[in-house]
User: Which sequence fits this backbone?
C-alpha cells in the first residue's frame, strides 16, 4: 500500500503530461492537414489554368499562337508569383 501511495501521484502526473502532449500533437496534425489541403487546391487551380491556356493555344494558328503563347505564359507565371506571395504573407 505504501508503494502505491508513493508511485501513484507521479504516475498520474506522467499520464496528464502525456494527455497534454497528445492533444498538442493532434492540433498540430490538424493544422498541417489544413495547410496540405490548401496547397493541393492551389496546385489544382494552377494545373487547371495551365490546361485552359494550352487548350486555347491549341485552337489558334501560326504567328497569333506564338504571340499569345508568350503573353499567356508570362501572365501565368505572374499569377503564380502573386499566389505564392499571398500564401507567404499568411504564414
Assistant:
Amino acid at each position: 500500500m505504501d508503494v502505491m501511495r508513493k508511485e501513484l501521484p507521479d504516475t498520474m502526473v506522467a499520464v496528464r503530461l502525456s494527455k497534454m502532449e497528445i492533444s498538442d500533437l493532434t492540433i498540430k496534425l490538424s493544422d498541417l492537414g489544413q495547410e496540405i489541403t490548401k496547397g493541393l487546391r492551389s496546385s489544382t487551380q494552377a494545373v487547371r489554368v495551365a490546361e485552359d491556356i494550352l487548350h486555347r493555344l491549341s485552337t489558334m494558328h501560326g504567328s497569333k499562337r506564338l504571340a499569345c503563347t508568350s503573353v499567356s505564359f508570362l501572365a501565368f507565371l505572374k499569377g503564380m508569383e502573386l499566389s505564392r506571395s499571398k500564401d507567404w504573407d499568411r504564414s
Summary: The mean pLDDT is 78. The chain has one domain: 2-90. Residues 61 and 68 are 10 Å apart (CA to CA). The radius of gyration is 27 Å.
